[in-house]
Amino acid sequence: MSSGKDSPRQKMIGMMYLVLTALLALNVSKDILDAFVVVNKGLENTTSNFTNRNENLYADFDLAKSIDPVRVTPNWKLAQQVKKHSSELTDFIDKLQKQLVAKTDGIEQSAADTLQMVDIKSKDNYDIPTNILIGDSEDGAAGASRKLKNKLIAFREQLSNCILAEDKKNIILDIDTEDPKNKGNNENWELYNFFHRPLVASITILSKLKNDVKNAESIVVDYLLKQNDTDAMKFDTIAAKVIPQSNYVLLGESYKADVFIAAFSKTKKPEILVGKYNEATKTFDETPNSVEVENGLGKYIAKADREGMVSYSGTIKIKSPKGKDVLFPFKSEYIVARPALTVSAEKMNVVYLGLDNPISVSVPGIPNERLTVSTTNAQLKNNGNGKYMVNVKSGPKVDVTVFATMENGEKRNMGVMSFRVKRVPKPVARIGKITMEGNMSQDKFEAERGIFAHYEDFEFDVVCKIISFEMSYPAKGLYLNVPVNGNNITDELHKIYKKLKRNDKVRFEKIVAVGPDGIAVNLSPLTLKVN
Asked: Backbone phi, then psi, for 30, in 5-degree steps?
């Protein structure tokens, strides 16, 4: 039974952490700040080791559950709850650390997410961390430290509830949220840990708490796993297993399944019988068929000669360590169906000219790697796992044809699915954020480099290029036109706009754009009023 003992390396890191925390009360020198970086790195490595250990424990739990689901499942569910609570709490601490770095160093959150502690510029800043963690309260109630403390208390209680009453005295969950014993200055847990602490100290303390959480998770999951004592009951609660290659079988094909004893030794060969086994009478209603056994696995094969649900049952007989025959009944079922083709467009029930249109292709009961897909009037790209891109060049429709390679090597046509071909919608011209019409100052227009086009409410993220337009502007009672090739707002247009009067209107007309289908289209005009 685990008591949460630390390794020598963990003890060393813990001792360094305590020494550095004590030194904070004396003087925060560069050497101390650099030492915190070293300690924090050690804590992060230890947390990573705990994470790896915990993943191995969960994998062991999954194996134990597969061997004896009735006995193991209750504790397995508790372990999954522990995993969920630990993940939520460590995620909260991670985000709090990144928030401290981002706010204190004055950087974007995305940059803080990848910034190493050694590269933090404001290691010695304590004002911003104190403001975040303690807030404007005298006891930390208004800061993030109080929320963190409450989460730690709740987490410890959740883990404690997973431990039997008679074992709680032997299981130590080292998550300390108690106020310091020497309260001469009325410090509580929040103030003691986070008040007036430099940024690197606050981050290191949070790393230490994250370490404690992962350690507590490891202790409790290990405890729950050992409660099952699966090693001591290899043969008395063993269960029969049936693993089919597929529960969906095409007419004319064969149903195949592995029937075996979980954790069964390869040196002992079981006897497997398949037929109509009656569990009430413990006998077969008719003469059963024997199943060939290889390395403890029964290779069951049945011809799929009729449609519908097919059920079967049987027994596995093995010798116990004392030489007694032990019988394990099993039952399973599978579906036999005619071949069916499924082809669907992932965006809409049409495909667009000139675009990479994603489609999915599948045939129930047949792996994707045994399907051959072809199209008419289009280029086809296979992205794997039944996902394809269809690029249509011409024509009113596209036919998608699918062939399947059966297990006997036969090529079978699974059908054809047709899609209508549609042109991409007409885009909308814009300058800045203005479409159709709007007001724009002369200074704002001076900053605009071009006129652009975009698609509104269109499922695809595609680009449309403007190839020409005209700008019309008022001059001496007339409107003069300036033609432009491309989409650039030239220096000449900037100068013209600069000379216009307030409330003058400028129109951008004869806007021609080319979309991904390569077809030139005329866009609606755009009007700007000078303000």
From this structure: -60, -40
Evaluate whether residue 349 is within a structural domain.
yes
Domain of 354? 342-422
Token duo for residue 263:
């954790």
Exposure on the CB side of residue 207, measured as CA atoms within 13 A: 25
Q: How far is CA 218 from the centre of its chain?
A: 23
Kind and range of the H or E element at 164?
Answer: none
Please, what are the averages of pLDDT over each run of 10 residues along the chain (531 residues)? 51 56 54 81 90 94 88 94 96 94 90 87 90 91 94 96 91 90 76 91 92 95 82 46 68 74 64 91 91 83 80 87 78 73 65 90 82 91 92 89 86 88 92 93 93 89 92 90 94 94 94 91 94 89
Question: Measured between alpha carbons, how far is residue 124 from residues 101, 190, 196, 236, 302 in Å?
Answer: 12, 19, 10, 62, 73
* Whether 178 and 81 share a structural domain: yes
**Pair (167, 189) in one structural domain:** yes
Q: With a threshold of 0.90, does the pTM exceed it?
A: no
- CA–centroid distance for 88 within its chain: 15
Give pLDDT, residue 22.
Answer: 53
pLDDT score recorded for residue 489: 94
Helix (H) or strand (E) segment spanning residue 491: helix 491-499
Say if residue 79 is in the same domain as residue 140: yes
Residues 153 and 300 in one domain: no
Rounded to whole angstroms, how far apart are CA atoms 320 and 317? 10
- In terms of domains, do 105 and 203 share one? yes
Supply the CATH number for residue 394's domain.
Answer: 2.60.40.60
Per-position DSSP letters for 204-251, written without gaps between them: HHHHHHHHHHHHHHHHHHHHHHHHH-GGGGTTTS--EEEEES-SEEET
Give the residue from 187, 215, 232 where a domain finishes: 232
The pLDDT value given to residue 232 = 39
Domain finish residue from 393, 422, 451: 422
C-alpha distances in angstroms, 146 versus 183, 374, 441?
A: 18, 62, 50
Q: Provide the strand spans (E) within 320-457.
A: 325-337, 342-345, 350-352, 357-362, 371-375, 378-384, 387-392, 397-405, 411-422, 428-431, 434-435, 437-440, 452-454
Q: Which amino acid is at 104?
A: T
Are 293 and 315 a contacting pair, CB within 8 Å? no
pLDDT at residue 19, as a whole number: 56
- DSSP one-letter code for 464: B
Give the amino acid at 90.
Answer: T
Residues 196 and 330 in one domain: no
Alpha carbons within 13 A on the beta-carbon side of 357 = 30
Q: How far apart, in whole angstroms, are the C-alpha atoms of residue 530 and residue 524?
A: 20
Helix axes 8-24, 199-228, angle to 10 degrees: 150
Q: Would you say how long the chain is, in residues?
A: 531
